[in-house]
Design a protein that fits this description.
20 strands; mainly beta; six-stranded mixed β-sheet; 36% strand; 2 domains; Endonuclease I-creI; homotetramer; Jelly Rolls; nine-stranded mixed β-sheet
Chain lengths: 310, 310, 310, 310
């Protein structure tokens, strides 16, 4: 269970099959640097181009197509004291009739205060003089190489993960990705210091990070990304429209509740019908992201370990 | 500020212009009975037909087209000790390929325990033997008569409210509806003892209620329903696909932040970009429902009262 | 088989249950006047209000819920020499990013030349000096009263018909509507002198008409509107997004091919897979309209008459 | 203007940047072989794997990012006498409630009769004993390498073309693709002997072909694929839902009418409003395809050549 300190020198704008930057053992931890969505690093130097340049790919020994990669997010530490966002709201979240009067896109700088653990507009807008939401670091874009020789833009997302921009991909969360190539080929980047649901200004607070993740191979097969926080389990669907993303996430949750919690379709529906929560990861990127989430307090793992062990 | 105890004898399956069941003054409170989605009352007698038979309409003196009706939900008390749901999951939330193997729809009875304030399947499914989520009463369908002589089925929802099935329409919440006819003509019913996001089994726990609401007329104009809880403000969009419902809700929130909180489009986007939450009311009915929600801790009302007073 | 000449004095902005304007026998023909989408009649007097004021409702003796109303469009004669449209394109058909630069909506007058059977802008735009497409009259909005006491705006459409804006609802076509109330209660109006697919400027060439239709009751049940031209049969779905409208239309066609043409699901798919055509009626109204169309040359009616007779 | 006879030995399941199979001059013609969607060649040998293995990529001298590749489809000759389809209808075109009763997917063989120029099921279904639609060859999947190092599955489509399954990509048509890499890197394959709108059984009649195309580089920039037949011009949008595909196609047509035909947004809307036609290429693949089509009889090219010349 080694810890590797990796300093990237190349970045990728697609998740695909490429020469690994580092080979690690199953269960190892990686501490590495990520740059922001526009390619700016900790020194505010632009070292790569848009969109969402990725650090990676990391080759995990023993990972085979059909397996699952579990990525435990140990730590996300901003590596500079500013980030940036756009204003105003993205066109995808507005009634078409409201678009004509909408102001043009601008870029804004936020200060990231690691002591107070809050973020704040460098030039506050009128009415937001005291607005300083908490620092809530998250990973915007991460995942593994997709199947079939595809190379998918880091602007979008699919079954292999990618640019999901979901705020629960945060420290303490374990994310699962379906593996399609030997070694999994894991990429990460596009960290946000904070972001509401939907990434509705087209960005979180985009900044560079030192990220620490632990990578484990599970000998089981999943269809869409899954995740677990201290409180919840969740599944992810990436598609347009939101309806389809929600269908992917819900169907994956149905599978999970059967595999690991012994609930058949009818029992799962009783549970989900009363306690399910849906989150909108992003409603901005080419593929939208919906999470289907259930509090773990409602769940009891199968004694036999379900299909998760092997 | 009188309180009226109204016992309905007729029910309605559309929200439209009909003879008022009761005329009340602006600010009065109504205590009334509602029956469940299939027309069953507190004595488990079927006294009306599907879908979602409504109690009402209540005529509020002084309400004029262009005004807003504020409905404060004082209390929702189940009036019998059982409710019912369907299983399995609704087809709208599944990948089409998963539908073929899906079991047929069944109806299930739940016990509503007002002492422990929890609900429980009468015949628990395997794996759910101890599943007893809290009693969380909510109104599934309520709203006012729509514009232009329309009469809209209580199966669906629109700008005038209707079958939104959003779990935050709960005791303590104030809901706002845009008024299109003199007197507003307010209807309510379809109470649920509990329901997760999305109403994804096609029902909440459907039961009869004694509901208590206070109705006030605001001399201001809104476009889509709005609401306020102890912690949050929210706006509602009703449409398909979910994307369009989300656009309606988000655009309405943008208007609200301008009117009452003095935030222009750019400032509002800074706030929403970092702290907005989206909830899925229902993803089952003909029109889906999305709520755009913001915690009040981030908001400061305009000193001048914005456009809310007059 | 009488022919009735009916001159309307009232108009309706919803399709619902209302006092019939005329009672006719099954098989009778009605010759009547319709006014344009904004309420302007043959004398260019505004005699009713938006949207799409309807002539009707006509009560057809013998029509019962569960039956089908066949409306043969005998003749559509413009009753004045001008019509109007909007420019530019509707927002529903544009990429959101293209909306900001889009010019504001304007109204334009077209001359309807019944001799040359063509239409022409009164003030031609640059580049369209010779643009004079043929007069192609069609009915924008027609249908029957919906079920369950609903009254649906003539701005939209549903299973009962309504504002479908499909250019094959033209002379020579027979349209079928599912009947939900005694007498069917048939409405018509919103004639267009011409219109492309999708009604993408938000209007056809809107004008007043003398319309002649023959109404027959079929003792059979359909779910969505159907139609037949000299060359084709077609089914209609009305919903958003277009995907759902297309699903409704396709599923209805599958039923029709089984009922009347003896094709099971597999055979129907062989036929449709090779020769089906989809038309976009409108992509502008609250509900979009898709037609699923098959040329009659590929079809052979069942010898036993299928389920159409009784 | 040479003609190259190219016999492929490798096939590709993604459109991406790969070693060219052949370098040709601007204006050259290529005669080559394509295999069917499942990888079966003219001898009914499976020589490559799904989905839609492509012949190519062809490097066109002088093609630069920002240019447009014009592909004139000279000839599509089936290279064997059978093709295959699936039944029944794809799940994407059915109401969800109709899926449960739907029969399972089967594969069927069709005979391709090059003399009568028709196709016919080898084992006709009941009611289709005489069903023999005309041979109407088309290209299901073709296009150029996408931007940014992406490699996109031949199951789907995007701005660079791909698996559009549009029946007007047929002999006599010229298709235009936006070029993103030096040499354009053109791929083609997935020929169909016949196909209705929407590819609604999930296939056309899939077979191997000898295809002949002429490739020219235009020094102009387009955003989405365009095409021209003897009668029409058309633009293509690829996305989900159909609404978004239609928006892409319509917006691209608006640009084209401005660039080449001198019509501003208002004039273009007058023309399109009356004569536009929408076709559904496919409503089956991950991205759906909509064509926006206008008959050339309504169009007059700008005297100055618009932006098409160089």
């Amino acid at each position: 269970m080694a810890t590797h300190r990796f300093r990237p020198t190349r970045y990728f704008n697609v998740l695909g099959t490429a020469e690994p930057c580092l080979r690690i053992a199953n269960g190892d931890t990686v501490v590495t640097d990520t740059i922001d969505a526009s390619g700016m690093d900790a020194q505010e130097m632009t070292v790569a181009s848009r969109p969402n340049p990725m650090t990676g790919p990391f080759f995990v020994e023993g990972a085979e197509p059909g397996d699952t990669l579990a990525v435990h997010i140990e730590r996300l530490t901003p590596s500079r004291s500013t980030g940036w966002t756009y204003s105003p709201l993205a066109l995808t979240v507005l009634d078409p009739a409201a678009i004509a009067d909408h102001p043009p896109q601008q870029r804004h700088v936020w200060e990231i205060d690691s002591k107070t653990r809050s973020v704040r507009l460098q030039e506050p807008a009128k009415g937001l003089e005291t607005f300083a939401p908490p620092l809530q670091p998250m990973i915007g874009c991460f995942g593994v190489a997709p199947a079939g020789g595809q190379a998918l833009s880091t602007a979008t997302s699919a079954q292999n993960g990618g640019n999901m921009d979901y705020r629960l991909f945060a420290p303490g969360t374990t994310a699962w990705f379906p593996i399609s190539v030997p070694g999994a080929l894991f990429y990460l980047g596009d960290g946000h210091a904070c972001q509401g649901d939907g990434e509705i200004v087209g960005t979180g607070i985009e900044t560079s990070f030192e990220m620490e993740v632990t990578l484990r191979v599970l000998k089981r097969t999943i269809t869409w990304p899954r995740g677990e926080t201290i409180d919840d389990i969740f599944t992810i669907g990436n598609a347009r429209p939101l309806d389809q993303a929600l269908q992917h996430a819900t169907t994956e949750m149905l599978r999970w509740l059967g595999e690991d919690y012994g609930l058949d379709a009818r029992a799962a529906s009783h549970l989900m019908g009363q306690v399910v929560r849906y989150d909108v990861g992003n409603v901005f990127n080419p593929a939208f992201t919906v999470a289907c989430r259930i509090a773990k307090r409602w769940l009891t793992k199968r004694q036999d370990g379900g299909s998760s062990g092997r």
